[in-house]
Amino acid sequence: MDHSLEGILGTFPCADDMKVQGSTEERHDIHLLETVEKASKAGVKFNPKKCQIKKQKIEYFGRIVTPQGVEASPKKVNDLLKLAPPTDKTELHSFLSSVNYLSSFIPNLSKKTHLLRGLMKKNIQFIWTSDMEAEFDKLKQAIASATQLIHYDPNKPVILETDASKKGLGAVLIQDERPVRFLSKALTSAEQEYSNIERELLAVLHTCEKLHTYTFGRTVTVHTDHQPLETIFKKPISLTSPRLQRMLLRLTTYNLEVKYVSAKNVLMADTLSRLIVPGKDKAVPGLDITIAQVMKIRPTCLSTLQEETKSDKDLTQLSEFISSGWPESIQDVPQNLQAFWCFKDELGIVDGLVLKGSRVVIPQQEHADTLQRLHEGHQGLQGTLR
Fold first, then answer.
1. What pTM was estimated for this model as a whole?
2. Label partner for 242 (CA 20 to 30 A): which of 48, 82, 93, 183?
């Protein structure tokens, strides 16, 4: 089916079923004619008794498709709600497979099935506990209140709400103030060590690339409750940390307008980013950074800088701000760190070193030795300062 009907707009084969759609009756008829002609040439036959032609509302693989949007099939929802708790792994696997059909309609489904999926692991004995019973009941409540998703309209503005926490990333694609797609991702242990602004930008990058069909080739407004993210898009890429540079370069593929909004206006994305099971998703590729990729540095010098950075109280405190986020006002920053405030968005952490752009922030104990080595080259005043 996929091979025979490949390339026809508005035609979506799935196993031995097929859906033909159009934004207008005329477009629908054109797609239907092309489908029938191509199927005839390929020898694909349709059963007239099973065909439904020119319907405004159809049920297709557990979904009800209407002009207003897409929602879960009431029959499938009711069947799931009537199910008794599973008694073995086979029944549990069948239940989770059915629930997976509704993943588009239920925000943060991975969180709601965490304990149940844990039972499916090898060498784990099937023992049904009260916690699993509670998760099973909550999951059925979520199924009963599954959200209706509206159709994507290429002619209407697109808004991406994104947010990041220490656990994961969350995003919602919105049109007409209603959701088109939900998206969430658990952070790997390495991604959890990113700076706060790097995690926030990772949420934007991951969402744009995952929803490439919706975000490429058009203007997309990104709503974020992290104000420095709006600023970083206005700065030269060369001033940002190495990992931010990689992400910003990849985002040049898209036409983004990043806008800061208050936290109460990105509640869906915020919830999706926080209620996540850690370590279940793969890392976003191409973002691993080592200090060797940033600058040339001797192993002995690197080891010394790492040790001194770790023992430096100011840099330890600074690293915590970089990782967890800065206060809203410079008055809330300790006096010893206020000098970093004006370029806080350029700071990052790579291999245990604090970087400003692509330059190392030298620990206090290394200041004198570093100044002496800078002067050894006799570069002159301006060369030494650079």
1. 0.64
2. 183
- CA contacts within 13 A on the Cβ side of 197: 26
Neighbours of 21 (CB within 10 A): 16
Residue 310 corresponds to which tokens in the numbers above? Answer: 């770790």
- DSSP three-state, residue 214: helix
User: Which domains, ranges and CATH numbers included, belong to the chain?
Assistant: 1-55 (no CATH), 71-144 (3.30.70), 158-274 (3.30.420.10), 291-385 (no CATH)
| Beta-carbon contacts of residue 225 (< 8 Å; ≥ 6 apart) | 163, 260, 261, 262, 263, 265, 266, 270
Residue 213: the pLDDT is 92
H helix runs in the chain, sequence order: 25-42, 74-81, 89-100, 109-112, 114-118, 130-144, 189-192, 196-210, 212-215, 227-232, 242-251, 267-274, 291-294, 299-311, 313-324, 367-376, 381-385
pLDDT at 271: 52
